[in-house]
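Bench notes, bay 3.
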Amino acid sequence: MGLLTHSPGRTRVKICGLKTSGDIDAAIAAGVDAVGFVFYPPSVRALSPNVAAQLISRLPAGVDAVGLVVNATDEQFSAIRAAAPITLWQFHGDETPERCIELADGQPWMKAARVGQDFAFDEFSLQYRQANAFLLDALVEGYGGGGVPFDWQGIPQTWVSENAPRVVLSGGLNTHNVGEAIARLHPCAVDVSSGVESSRGVKDPALMTQFIKAVRAADEKSSSQ
């Protein structure tokens, strides 16, 4: 299964920025398809490769362990790879396509797009055409979407239709707006972090459950139309 198994009528769910065993257990209980580990020291959600390895050991088969990196050096990336059994890489910085391919070294990977006004979708998907997925996030200062949604209406419908099996939608999603996002875009997967937190960097088990229930309700509604 995993995050990028495209199944029409079933949106996959990734919860990012998990840091504790309680986070992992709550996400699994809620029915998550992938969990994200942040290897970017400036982030409040960052953790060490060794801690990530301990958390990954709690994941059942079929749940992806996603490693989020931002402009990682060879040394930093090697340390992560040596300790943590990541199954899917998320390049969230200014990595070139060549750099992504080099670091992933045959493993699946996705490239984050920082979507602002006049973002060139066709150019981006052509440039990173070897990516297994395109993660659409909001353009804010720094890296990561900052829990801010972007204008979904600005995504060309033809681009969405052509790339839906590879689109992971992120950026300000929460229980209240994820249904609209799924109805409009029908992405392969959705990605949430701050939208399931009780305070910055602290995951809330109840919000994780509510978010995934909202995704499933949106899938059911789409399937019945």
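Next record in the batch:
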Amino acid sequence: MRQLVICLSLISLSSCAVVDDKFHATDSIFDQQLSGVLQKILEKAAKIQNAENVSASLYISDRCHWEGTSGTTKQDSSVLVEPDMLYGFGSITKTFVAAIVLQLVEENKLRLDEPLENWLEKYPNIDSNITIRQLLNHGSGLYDYINDGDSFWLEVDMNINRVWMPEELLGHLGSPPEIGFDVPKYSNTNYILLGMVIEAATGRTLEQELQNRIIEPLQLNNTSLAKNIFDPNQWADNRVLTSSLYSGVWAAGAVASTSRDIAKWSHTLYSGKFLHASSLESMLVTEPRRYGKGAIQMGLGVWKSEIASESAWGHGGWIGYFLSQTFYIPKYNLSVAYVSTGIDESLVRVPGSLLVSAYIDNKPDDISMCFDS
């Protein structure tokens, strides 16, 4: 099918929309050649992953970003995925929660090394002496409530309209804190507790704090903490839009968004435009944490990794059929976010590696025009 290409010239670069029966991609200022390369790379990544659909974004500034999609919605194979369609970003939610906590520290409403008992009542299997910092960097050793055998997930599936309260989630801590390991384990329980701490410290809901501190100021208009209100037509895959699932992961994984919003958020956070320099420095101090069968260097709500041989800061996410990743590469002042439906978790890094390599190899010489002054 013949492609329709619409370009609006701006200085020496261009803003283009490319549409055909296979994909939809948009960009602002990225030149047309680079945009075309990135779209082809995204389609290649989708094939390698065997993804039903994928959405990705590269972000340098509001003046310069790229978005691309490939595939069709799961619910209707005749409908192309559009850049503004929603996905669940799972544990990338933790980057928002950590940033809010660090802002509260800046405001002297919280202290990183104060104990949990200063804010919350005692719960079974939770040591009240655990600090805010230990929750943020997964150093608490707390059991992960979602790994309570099959009990938690059976309850999630049993009543899809259930709206969980955070205290109910803590009821699935059926095992005492993990001991006997040199390296603590990544645990979603830490961020459920942090969500509760935020609410106790502010007197407002986590949803309100997210809206007031991040979503509105940054104009992340497609981002929300999904809980129990869904418009299935807005989503790239609406198979598991249940109140029970999203309220069941809450502060640990309920953010719904688009790849562009997430890429913009990552850029804002890790480039130093959201937190004070000292707060960001604290955030980026990492320690090894057990994750799956290996270990990851984790800071305060952030993972340190390497993408296309470059150091990067970010986080991964999984919820339902959505698998995602976002990261910021300081060397290129570049953030990347992408999310796929129906893919193999072992291949989650494929789009990021391929897109970054393509960007490095094909970016125009005058890409500096994209940077904010």
